Amino acid sequence: MDLGDVCESLIIWLGTFPNIEVPRNTPSDLSDGVAISEVLCLLAPDWFDEEWLAKIKRDVGDNWRLKVSNLKKVVKGVNDYYEQVLRQQIESFQMPDVNAIGERADASELSRLLQLVLGCAVHCENKHEYIQTIMQLEESVQHAVMSAIQELIQKEIPSTVPGDTYKQLELEHHQTTEQLHAALAEREELAQRCHELQQEVMTLGEERTALVLESEKLVKRLKDINSPDDPDSPYGQKQQQIHRQLEQLKQEKFEMEHEIDESRLKSEHMEKQLNELQQKNEDLNSMAEQARRWKDEVDELRHEAVKVEKLELTLDSYKKKVEDMTELRKQVRTLEETNRSNMQKTLELEDELRKSLCFKTQVESYKKQVQRLDAELTEERQRCDKVGIEPFVEFVISCFQLSRY
To answer: Which pLDDT value is given to residue 5?
Structure first.
């Protein structure tokens, strides 16, 4: 696509905007950015307001630096409009070189700038009106403008990667665009066919007029030579032949006119379908914008859901720690009770041990006394055996046994 031809077509399209007082017929007229800024104010007055327009310097003359400054403000405003209002990224689109436009009014770079302005027109609130204006341009200009729109749409990327809903809407938008181009192509074909049929009708009309003139001449000559009522005469036969040709031409003309009417009806039907496709395209754009807003809300909710999930995990861990602490407290209380019981038992055992030690001491003392008394008894028996005093010994033993109890 020749950017110079596209620039000329876009300048013609730019001339359709009313109430623009500054010249805008050549690239040199548009190189200062004033006319383009006024067009942007008409397209989106809420965004490109009077405050923004006041920043554009007028009467810059041949000062290319002031022109470049104006053009930079225009390009920045358009980029902000795409990103913040239309929610679209145009980074893949080759941005215009404002220096080349300001210094030498470069038509190729100016066409890129006008292409961005055209994108604002077909995406703004009154886009239906501007699309209708484009459809009323000449076919060559209309074709160049539609090609520029198609190239810009292919470079546009939504600010958020659109989900399944956005992909479906994008597919429907692409299909609608294809149907729109097909309808335009069929309309051009029908217009060409109507033009050809009109040319044929004009040719047949001219032939009919020539034949009528020739017939009149021949009739006049027949009146002079023979009776016109004689069909067997050469002139009568010639007249009949001409009459048949005239009837045939009339029939062909009638058929051509009928075919033209059918083509006109078909063209009107295609116009209606084209308007419906444009309306559907607008609806799809609106649905795509709504899908972008929904996707942003879903992303925010998903982010919040991740936070909630993390908090729930933290809360679960705290609950588990609390349960572990409760179990540990129960175990500590059980151990404390066990410890108190063991201490009580220990004290009791120590008391018993002390008692048993005292008892053991007494038992040892008693054993020693018994041993001593046994020894004494043995000595006494021996002595009694020697002396022979048995009754006395028995008496002593009985006394000793009584003393043990």
So the answer is: 80
